[in-house]
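PROTEIN DATA CARD
Card holder: Heavy metal translocating P-type ATPase
Chain length: 765
Origin: Streptomyces tateyamensis
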Amino acid sequence: MRTAPRPATRRLEPALLITTSAALVAGGISFLLGSRSTADLCWALGTAAGIGPAAVWVIAALRRKHAGVDLIAVLALVGTLAVGEYLAGALISVMLASGRTLESAAQRRASHDLRALLERAPHSARRREGGSVLTVPLEEITPGDLLVIGPGEVVPVDGQAAGTATLDESALTGEPEDVERAAGEDVRSGVLNAGPAFELRATATAENSTYAAIVRLAREAGAENAPLVRIADRAAAWFLPLSLATAVLGWAIGGTPERAVAVLVVATPCPLLLAAPVAIVSGLARAARNGVVIRDGRALEVLGRARTLVLDKTGTLTAGRPRVLSVSAAPGRTSAELLRLAASLDQVSPHVLAEALVREAHARGLSLIAPLDAAEEPGRGITGLVDGHRLGVGRVELPGDLPAWARAASNRAALDGAAIVWLTVDGELSGVVLLRDPVRHDAPRTLTRLHEAGLTRLVMLTGDHEGAAREVAAVLGLDDVASRQSPSDKVTAVRAERARAVTVMVGDGVNDAPALAAANVGVAMGARGSTASSEAADIVLTTDRLDRLADAMEIAVRSRKIAVQSAAGGIALSLAAMAVAALGYLPPAAGALLQEAIDVTVILNALRALGAGRAARQALKPDTEDLLNRFSAEHDDLRDALDILRDAADQVATGDRTQALATVRRAHHFLTDRILPHEDAEEHQLYPALSEPLGSTEATATMSRTHAEIGRLARRVATHLEQADAGGGLQPDQIDDLLGSLYGLHTVLRLHFTQEEENYFSLVR
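Structure generated from the sequence above:
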């Protein structure tokens, strides 16, 4: 396809349109006034004005080794002058000029969102040096510099907020709402300061920052290499000789050169075969508005016909931030005490599991203290003094015969695919923390949408152990999974998939970069992913949401379909018009008008790729989105507390009756004070609000039935407590039913939470 018009070309095309249009109108006025010779002169001048630019376009196309479909236009213009069909020539010139102008306008409109990324890129930053603030070139910023970000300024480099910052991240994420970043939180370059001035501690140079990588991709964005464009050029290779042969045949049938000229006039495909590139560029713009930066049109076109998707696990299918699943303590110790000690020591560790322990301790309101004599051994863990105790967190020397509580925790880790962090206090095994990286809320719905968009095989590659990999694969219904994969293993696997079908690879880490480059299309989770993965990828998701991949896939499929439709439809219409002209039923002037209509129609059709299409999801009302965010936050707060139900059941099954009864009471209070009010609010506030975006109240009917079951089981637990109070404690005949109620509640609530998160909470964009 033609590249985006240069400034000189942009000035030439409107000038040519004005000149040719003026000649056509002047000739028409002269004809109406009875001066046929003046009219012919004006139209001939308009025809001649179009020959020069058309010839230049042909030569430029041939230099790029393209078929040069504008050659037909040149032959048609010369032919109209030769046979005296000056009006037809003038119409062709106007058609050429208007088609070129329309195409340029379409490409400029379609690439607006991509250019906006480039225009926003900052070139300098304000650095605090002592008591003064100096403006310095962006290239001079180094990690550790303290920058001042004023109101309305674009953050120039990646860093950490030195104080609270209110940011507009829409340019990167597509999300319109402002977000707040607290002191110490990461801030990505390219976001806008939507609040008062704040200070930022740089953590990367400008070249290695998020926005710089996105700008590099955007600068390359275009459809120069789109296979559809080459298909159009190959079509032109047979379309040109066919047009000439039809023109000769028409001349032979009619015995006059006018028929040949008429055929060449309707065969003139100036903007016709450019409809495919316009659709591709429109798709690129549409993707950019959804937080997806696509390197070029080739990537968009290939994504649109992909059949296999290969995904990394950590940070792609999962959140990439492990969460504490449970804390088990040895007899005589409490889980809260052990978590406080472990998190206090882990404050000085950069390990991702250490961050999870510290985050969990803060969430539980535990007071942490600074450790002493801390030392960390990579792959083993960290040791140090906390509260006068020598503490070890991580992999520790385990006794040959694990105590029962430790064995139970180890077995649960195997069942849940969880990571294990052991805790020792003064050399004695004292506790264990289980952590798991949760599957993204939007992952199941996203994979369903990807299947609907045309993907037939979903494969996961991960460096994690087999248990965790199988757990995620089972939850998401993947077709295949491979664990403990090194970067070279991932490359081999991707190449094997690529040999079978067009393959897309999605990842976020440095170790994923080679596999991304090996795939037909590489997709990087750019929001928290590494610069290496973003640089190796063809597509970057600028927000930390997997559903943007489904957006990109749907856009790619639709854009490719529209591109093929536009190119094929335009050629078909031209072929039909050529046949009519060859038979003598379409004179040159009328043919020129018809071809102009065809060209404008197919280009306007190609611009439909800018739109969302019928399959686009209905936007949520702000109130509904607020409700979804509220209940999602409540799920995060309640999910870990659900273990109180299982713990109560365990006590009933193995503990003494008095202690078990106390635990069941705590579980009952949890149900009546927190769970049941939450479910009631969902039933009467959230579900009615979802009826419109989901299409009917039937969409939430199953979830409503689950609410009823949760209420029934909760009442059953309450009845058992009443009976225990009346009988002086739990009776043997209550045990089995109480166990079923407690374990059932734990299972149903976990499943219910997961279903709501996948089906409803993932609607928030």
